[in-house]
Amino acid sequence: LIEVTDHGVGMDAATRRRVFEPYFTTKQKGTGLGLAVVRQVVERAGGFVRVDSAPARGTTVRVFLPRVGAATGGTVEVPLPPELRVPPVG
Questions:
Q1: What is the pLDDT of residue 62?
Q2: Fewest Cβ atoms nearer than 10 Å: which of 1, 10, 16, 32?
Q3: Strand partners, 61
Q4: pLDDT tens digits for 49-75?
């Protein structure tokens, strides 16, 4: 499991239903290919992607990949570099 969470504005149900569509974006700039490509790569590897979000509550994207070899039994947290961190809203 790879989990990424932000504390941004979140998404309503209509937006959540579209997040995996190629070229869909809520931004003024960008291609909208991010989650569409992630989903395709993950599913080809035998995994799946789940997105949980609600307005004013942020978003969590979970990437589930098949287990390979022995489980490590641990959790690894990788902090984002400061230039990629987004301050919480509110």
A1: 95
A2: 1
A3: 4, 51
A4: 999 999 999 999 999 998 776 555 666
pLDDT mean across residues, the chain = 84
Total residues belonging to the chain: 90
Q: In Å, what is the CA distance from 76 to each residue of 3, 4, 6, 73, 86?
A: 11, 13, 18, 10, 21
CA atoms within 13 A on the CB side of 54: 1
Contact partners, residue 53, CB within 8 Å, separation at least 6:
10, 11, 15, 16, 59, 60
Q: Dmax of the chain from CA atoms? A: 44
Question: How many other C-beta atoms can be found within 10 angstroms of the C-beta atom of residue 53?
Answer: 20
Tokens found for residue 3: 């989990």
Helices (H), ranges, the chain? 13-18, 34-44
Name the burial class of residue 19, with classes exposed (0-12), middle (13-18) and buried (19+) by CB atoms within 10 angstroms of its CB: buried
Q: What is the CA radius of gyration of the chain?
A: 15
